[in-house]
Each structure stands twice: as C-alpha cells, then as structure tokens.
Amino acid sequence: MITMASDRRALTFQDDVIAETPDGERLRHCMQCGSCGGSCPNGPDMDHTPRALFALIAAGQRDKVLSSNTQWCCVSCYACTSRCPQSIPVTDVMYSLKRISLRAGLAGGTDAPALARTFTGLLDKYGRSFEFGLASRYYLFNKPLSMLKMGPLGLSMFTRGRMSLVPTRIRQLGQLQAIIQKARDLGGEA
Amino acid sequence: MSYAYYPGCSLESSSAAYDVSVRAVTQRLGIELKELDDWNCCGATEYFAQDKLTACSVIARNLALVEPRDSQLVAPCAACFLNLKKTDHLMADDPQLAGKINQALAAGGLSYQAGRVLVRHLLDVIYTDVGEESVRQQVVRPLTGLRVAPYYGCQIVRPYNGFDNSEHPTKLDELFGWLGAEVVNYPVKTHCCGGHMTQISEPQAYELIRRLLQSAADNGADVILCMCPMCQLNLDAYQRAVNNHFHAGFKIPIVFFTQMVGVAFGIEPSRLGIGKEIVPVEPVLRSKLQAASA
Asked: Quick one: how far is CA A157 from the chain centroid?
C-alpha cells in the first residue's frame, strides 16, 4: 500500500511498521502462535518475544515497542522468518523496528546501535570493513573495560595473520560515497 | 565453469584461511573464480539496522560491478551471500525500491537490473555444478576416521538459499561423505552462533556458542566445519572465553569446510591456511588420519 506523507497522521503505528518493511502487510496476519519466539536463539533475553511485540504493535503501543530490547537482541538468523506459518518476514520487521527506534531516539540499553554506527562509519570511509578499527573504536568508546579482556584475543588473531592494523581502501571510493550520499538524499527509508 | 567471485572483507583478514582454501580447492576442481574488481563491503547486518535504502544501494554496487559476460556470482561468506541475494530479491519484488536504488547507483555511473546476476554459495557450486563424481576423482587422502560436524549456521540456509533444506540441510554432510569422513549427526547444525552478539552482550553470546560446542562434543566430533567467517570466529576465537565462563574444557578445532576438502585433495596445509585457527587442527589430523592409514 502506498501512502502519501500527508495521510500519515491518520495511520496507526502498525501501518508505519508495515510501510517500513518489505512484504510488511503480512504482519496483519499474525495469529499469535509464538513460533517466532520459540525459534529465537535470543528469545529468553528479550523484553518481549516477537509474538508479544506484534500484539503490542497491533495495540498501538508505540513507545513500549520502540524502547524494547527485542529488536536489538535479533542477530538476523532468520529462524523465525523461515518458520512463520503466516509468512511474516519477522527478521525484516525487527530491522524496521531498529530503524524506527533509532529515528525516534528511543533505542536504549544496548550497545548494538553503537556497533552498527561504528561499522558503517568505517564502510563509508574506506569502502571495506576494518576489523581492527571497528574493535578498537567500538570498545574504546563503549566498553573501555572490556578492552583489557579483548587484548589477548586480539594478540592471538594478530600473530596468526588474522588481523590487519591498517585498513584496505577501495579504488573508486568517490563513486561509492556518491552512491551513499544519493541514497541518503533520497530519504534513506525507501 | 567460470564465476564472478565476491570474497568479502572477512576473507581478507580474520578469515584469510577461508579465502586461500577456497582458491586452492576451486582451482583443483576446475572452477574459475574471477574476483570482482573493486568490490565494497556488504554492510553485514549493520546497514540494514540503520537505513534500508543505503544498505541496498551499497550492496547493489557489487551486483552492478559484475561484468556483463558473467551471470553468476559466488560468495563464500554467509552474510555477504545473504545480503547480495536478498537485495536482488527485494529489487525484483519492489520496483519502486529498485528505482530508488538505481537512482543512487546512477550517482556513481552504475545500474543494476534485478535478476541479472544469480548469487550462489560455493557449497552449492561444488555440490551441484561439480558434482559427486568429479569431487571423488580428486580425493587422494580420504578423511577416513575423521569425525566431522558440519555446521550450516543460519544465513546460508535461510531464507533465500534455494539449494538446501532450511531446517535439515544435508549438502555439506553429503560432500564430506564423498571425501570419506565420518559425518556426525548433531541436532544444532543450523542454530545461530550469536553473530555480532560477542561484541554486544558476552554472556548471551557465550551461551549460544556453548550449546554448539557441547552438542558437537557430545556426539563425538573431532572438528567442526564452518561455512561462515562469523561462525568460525565465534567458535574458535571465543572458545577459551567460553571455557572460562562456564568452567568447561572444550578443545574442538573449528575449520572452514574448504580447508578439509583441500586436505582430502592432498593440498599442502600451508596452502589451505591451516595453522591460522586458534584451537589447532593439526594434532587432530595427525592422530586421526594417520591412525586410519596405519
């Protein structure tokens, strides 16, 4: 369903989630069976299982949903997506909730957004991921104490030739950055 | 057999053993892999968590870079494989999204039409395109006596793979049967390793890793075979931390499946990246494979 920006105010929170999600209309077909939560490796650590979260979405509990840790516990293993008897793209709904909660400034209580931002910041800068840069920056700014614990692991990776201390840059970095800029200008939330 | 090749960032550093063994094994099997010129990072799960259009555009640049004469792209990394395949699917299903992605690509002088490139996983190429007979012909050192636990993980078998069952995949099991290995059946072979959770919430991640190691150990595995850099990293590099956390004593080598295919083909261990793993596989290979041939 295509909606005009001016119609948005009349729409419910569930409509917003659906509009943000590829094949999101399936969300309306949730029958509360709980296959998603039962399949989820991180289900026990979630504030609400996906099933419960979908009920909250349908009930319009926007802030409760967006400040939940549920979406940030999702590591995209797609077990729920492949098992959902109603073909709801559960993993993609979790991605939508991550994005909406970041835009709303409601993502809290987890380091996952910081890891995501550090990761894509390096991608934007070099065109490739940079594992040493990611680990050092992320731990320094978010979990400085964990850096001590990570030291020996980093060293064993380095001595086995599994960690480079310098980033690799792609040749046509300008081209990639122009693509990224244009995608952002287009709204960044197709 | 010729394919465009997308190694992905991990294969340049933390999973260099995967890249060298992929190249050595495919060369032996007559598979020509042509590395995509100037490919960029697929964004893993981190771009989709922030911005869908940029996530897709960054991935689509790689699809657009595939030469017109090539129609298939091979990606050994699970996250790269899924992202490339997913973006192609999303563009085919949603012309409006595809239009916006192409507007972004146009800013870099590129374009991509959904469906032009078929994204394949290397296991599928070896299993389907090369096939049993040609694989068996290359075996000079059967893996007889070696008990392997094939670990499929999540993003290769779900939800787009198109070549194996997502609940009970068997292709990696079958391949190692052709190589003479004793394939261990263990119930968690498609369970998640926790992905980036080792960086976000350690206790949560350690429990997922423990379950995998425990199940493989309970079923008598000598090694766990991985198809994904993240799985290999979590199970290998964090094995010591998991042992400390749970007062456990796991000592299971975690290798890429291509490394063990290479061993069966008689390729020198140094050309397969053997020795880069933190829990060493060499002692296991020495005791198991020599015991079998003695």
From this structure: 27
- Return residues 99-118 of A near B (CB < 8 Å): 99, 102, 110-113, 115-117
Chain A, nearest residue to B94 by Cα: A22
B237 touches chain A (CB under 8 A): yes
Tell whether B185 is covered by a domain: yes
DSSP H helices in chain A? 13-20, 35-39, 50-58, 62-66, 70-73, 79-83, 90-104, 112-126, 131-142, 144-159, 173-185
Domain ranges of chain A: 12-104, 112-185
Q: Which residues of A touch B212 (CB under 8 A)?
A: none
Residue of chain A minimizing CA distance to B234: A153
Do residue B39 and residue B167 come from a single domain? no
Domain co-membership, B153 together with B199: yes
CB nearest A183 (choices: B41, B46, B53): B53
Three-state DSSP state, A147: helix
**Per-residue pLDDT tens for B230-250?**
999 999 999 999 999 999 999
Sort out which chain A residues have CB atoms less than 8 A from B77's CB and list them.
none
Asked if the C-beta of A47 comes within 8 angstroms of chain B's C-beta atoms, the answer is: no
Do B9 and A153 lie within an 8 Å CB cutoff? no
pLDDT digits (tens, 9 = 90+) for A46-97: 999 999 999 999 999 999 999 999 999 999 999 999 999 999 999 999 999 9
Q: In this structure, which topology does domain A12-104 adopt according to CATH?
A: Fumarate Reductase Iron-sulfur Protein; Chain B, domain 2 (1.10.1060)
When divided into structural domains, chain B yields a total of 2
Cα separation of B173 and B151, whole Å? 9
pLDDT of residue A6: 53
| Residue carrying structure tokens 């960044």 | A188
The 3-state DSSP class for residue A178 equals: helix
A-proximal residues of B, 113-152, CB under 8 Å: none
**Model confidence band, residue A3 (pLDDT cutoffs 50, 70, 90):** low
Range of the domain at B154: 137-293
Which has the closest alpha carbon to A98: B12, B123, B46, B142? B46
Residue A87: both structure tokens together:
């073909």
Structure tokens at A165: 């201390």
SS3 B293: helix
Here the tokens at position B157 are: 């078998």
Beta carbons of B51 and A78 less than 8 Å apart: no
